[in-house]
Amino acid sequence: MPLIAAALVRTRPLVVVAVALLAAVLAGGPVLAQSQSQTRPADGGDAITPVEEYAKQVEELKKSYPDLSKRIEESAKSIDQMSNVDQAQKEIEELRGIVAGLLGEVSDNGTVSQLGAKALAHARGKLKAIEGDARFKPEEKEFLLDQWRRLITETERATEDLESARKEFADLLRTLQTREDFIDELMQVRRASEALQVIRDLTREIRDASSKLKGLIGGLKPPGV
Q1: pLDDT band at 17, cuts 50/70/90?
Q2: Distances (CA, A) of 154 to 135, 140, 224
Q3: Within its chain, how far is the Cα of 85 from the centroid?
Q4: Half-sphere exposure of 47 toward its Cβ, with a 13 Å CA cutoff?
Q5: How far is the first Cα of the chain from the last one, in angstroms, to the nearest whole number?
Q6: What is the mean pLDDT of residues 14-19?
Q7: Domain tally, the chain
Q8: Does residue 169 surpass a pLDDT of 70?
Q9: How far apart are CA 58 and CA 220, in angstroms?
Q10: Which domain holds residue 184?
Q11: What's the whole-model pTM score?
């Protein structure tokens, strides 16, 4: 009995296949044909992949065109602005106004020159007031006097440093005023350099778009041709 059961187990797959074939014959449909139709691509199936790939390239190109068009427009505006004579004149006038304002503040009678003098006048006035003030004990008074004397000495030193810095800066500003023409030319050189970079960037983007377009045009043929 065990031998018979083992034989049935070994032959069961064959029995299943035989039953399926018989059922297919009775139903009027070839099983093998259906099986092959499921595993074998349909006629023209090999052409699906190239067509889909081509369609994908078209979509990518369509998406990139608006961006490129926008970059061309932006580049044109940038170069127009960089070569605008009125804009260049406006920039040099703005610089002239800044220099004039600073020079007024650091001139001999300007705001900066008066800062040290005001600070010294205040410290010396406090020292004099403390010397004649009877509200404090002798040791307190002496402590306050020492503090104000120290502050006066340090303020005098700081005022001298400020005055030196003020004069140097004022001289440089005056020199800058006499070199406006040269500065204007330097600013124009800078704008031209920026325009050059815009042209290079746009050239790179157009070449990239051309490369994609060449690939697209090269695909305009049936697969296998």
Answers
A1: very low
A2: 27, 21, 92
A3: 28
A4: 9
A5: 66
A6: 42
A7: 1
A8: yes
A9: 11
A10: 96-189
A11: 0.52
